[in-house]
Design goal:
116 residues, mainly alpha, rod-shaped
């Protein structure tokens, strides 16, 4: 009788294993495969975002350098213009215009040129 009990247990175990494999193991394998795919996609997106951030930082650095260069050049032009318009030169007389340039209102005025 013990032999038939063992055989019944073996059959039940085999039957349960088959059902378990069909209901759990196969879908679990599919889920695990999908998780691996998603992890690969997340890694790829992380690399893309990191590259974009690096490019953004490089762009910001470049724009900063360009701005500093432009600012330096503008300062040099302003210094040159001030040297050209130094007191005692004819171009610095009130109302005198530089060739090729129109009169502009000074900053802070209300649309008319400040006269002193």
């Amino acid at each position: 009788m013990t032999f038939s009990g063992r055989r019944g247990w073996s059959q039940a175990k085999s039957s349960l294993t088959t059902k378990f494999d069909g209901r759990v193991t196969i879908p679990l394998a599919d889920v695990l495969e999908r998780v691996v795919q998603l992890q690969a996609q997340v890694e790829e997106l992380t690399r893309i975002v990191t590259a974009q951030v690096d490019v953004g930082n490089q762009t910001t650095e470049l724009l900063g350098r360009l701005l500093a260069t432009a600012s330096g050049r503008l300062d040099a032009v302003e210094d040159s213009l001030q040297a050209l318009g130094a007191p005692g030169t004819p171009s610095s007389a009130p109302g005198a215009e530089r060739p090729g340039r129109a009169k502009t209102a000074t900053k802070g005025s209300s649309g008319s040129e400040d006269k002193q």
